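Predict structure. Chain length: 438.
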Amino acid sequence: MGHLALKDRYTKLGKKIDSLTFRVPWNETLREILKELYTADEADLVIMMPYGLSTLARIAKITKVPAPALERLLSGLCAKGLVVDLFIEGEYHYMPSPFVIGIFEFTMMRTGGGLDVKKMARLFYEYFHHDHGALHAANFGEGISYGIMRALPHEEAVRDLPHVEILDYERATEIVRGWDRFAVGTCSCRHEKLHAGHKRCEVPLDTCSTFGYSADYWIRNGLAKEVSKSGMLENLARSRELGLVFNADNVQRNVTFICHCCKCCCNALQAVNLYGYTQMVVTSTFIARIDGEACTGCGKCAKECAANAIEMVPVQDEQGKKGKRPVLDEAFCLGCGICTMHCRPRAIMLEKRGRRVIHPETTFERVILQSLERGTLQNQVFDNPMSVTEDVMRAFLGAFLRLTPVKRALLGDTLRSRFLDRMKSASRLLGKEWALKL
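Prediction complete.
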């Protein structure tokens, strides 16, 4: 693979990763991250690999890398979390890891040798906060609705009213009960903050939870340890006692992970708190409501709110007595229920939101909608980077999908379902019906 030796392979690699489902603005810190993680041969292979999940045989055909070398390179990349391999319908399918959720998380979950953890923590911290959160702006700026994660409500925080239902995909315990394989790994955000010198909490590192085929990937590649279903439920219970936010895979079916987040370490919550990108974490279908008569003005809800959505404001009652009362900024409320968990009189609880919150049904739908919003859907459709014909088609489709009226129409309520149905039909015609089950 020496044909790339005279070119800047890491710039090419950065461009390839930027073309996946999560945008990565280029700067010298990103170059350092890539050079630290990928060998020259690994970088060349990822540049040539298809954008989406592909079999070993297809990757060999496209990249022209001999099978023994290809298997060795892919094995090493998977062990580092830089390529994802999923066992689907009897064989492995491989794809380059996006930056999030992927390269960052899997790198900072590694606990074995061969990694300068302190250096990587410093580089990731610098990159996440470069230019006032340029990474977050590229992925969650104006017009972005489809985030990677969604908040789960703590069930105890939901007000017991008639006709209030918590759907199974919003119940952490029900998500766990729907799977038969589980893994718990190191929280990448807390691990990063610990080694970068910014961890301020006492929350343990071993909280990150994954299920099913995702757990299989983590376990096989040494990124997490396998636990039983009861062990996973105990992990949830501990995090509930610690007052952590549950942020899950932003899909309704086959939820593959739950993050256990504290606002001092979590990069997703920092995107909301520090930079105001509220779509980094999609809200639950609930929102906090305050009972002014029951509220004592203690301020614990404001202090503990993971999104800093509550402000204590001065008030004065009819007798002239001064105090403070919480005021909720609904644009920032995640509907997680952490405020309720710290409110002794239960003066603040979760109720159903008045507006509809859209969560994609499957990972297939999330990837399609997420890629459409971020301008990379053409790479999922024409995914062979080594084909001149597909390169032309990518350029044509990408230019078409970048047109604001087109994107707005496809994402709107009227055409979205029809558009997704067409994408599903295309996947079936290409022999990728298995992708619809993820």
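Summary: The two ends are 33 Å apart (CA to CA).
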